[in-house]
Amino acid sequence: MTIDVRMLSISLRILILCVVLFAGCAVTTQVTNTQRSSIEQQLLVSSLERALVTLNTQGFKGKTVTVDFYGLTPDRDFAREFVTAWLQAQQVQVVTDPKQAQLRLKVFAPVLAVDQGQSFVGAPSFTVPLMGFAVPEIPVFKDVRHSGHAEVEIYTIDADSGQFVDKSPAATGDAQYDDYTILIIVHFTRSDMENPKWDGSRG
Question: By residue range, what is the domain housing residue 7?
Fold first, then answer.
C-alpha cells in the first residue's frame, strides 16, 4: 500500500510539472497577421532614420529636387515616401515635375531588411512516438535577436544637363530588439529603438 501511495504522489508531481511547462510555453505563443510584425516595422523605421540623419543635405537646401528611389524589397515604397518626407523636413523643396527641378536625386537603398538569430539551451520540441502528440520546447535559456539594417546612397544629377554632380557616402543605420526567455517562466525584452526625432537643423 505504501508503494502505491508513493507512486501516486510521484505521478501527481509529474502531471503538475507538465501542466506548468505547457502553460509557460503557451504564454509565449505569437501570431503574425501582417507581412511584417510590429517589431520588424519599428526596426526598419529606426534603422532607416538612423541612416538618414548621417547624410549631409547641405547641398540640397534651398533647391528644388525630384526624388527617384530604388530598393531591392517591397519595403522600398514606404521607404521612398519616408525619405521624401525626411528631405522636406530638412528644408529641401521636393517636386514631382522634373521640369521644375534643379537637381535630380537618385536614392538607392541597397540594404533595407530585418535579420533574425537565435541562441537556445534546453530541450527542443519533439513528437512522442506512437502517441502522436507534440511536446513543446523547454528552454533553460533562449535569446531571439531581431536586427534592422538600412543603407542609403544619394546620387545627385543636374536636372538640366543630366550631368553627374555628386555622390553621398553610404549612410548606414542599425536597430536591435532581443527577446529573452530564462527557465521557461522568466521572459523579458531589450531594445535600442527610440521614438523618431527629426531635427530640421541637421545636415
Answer: 2-28+39-191
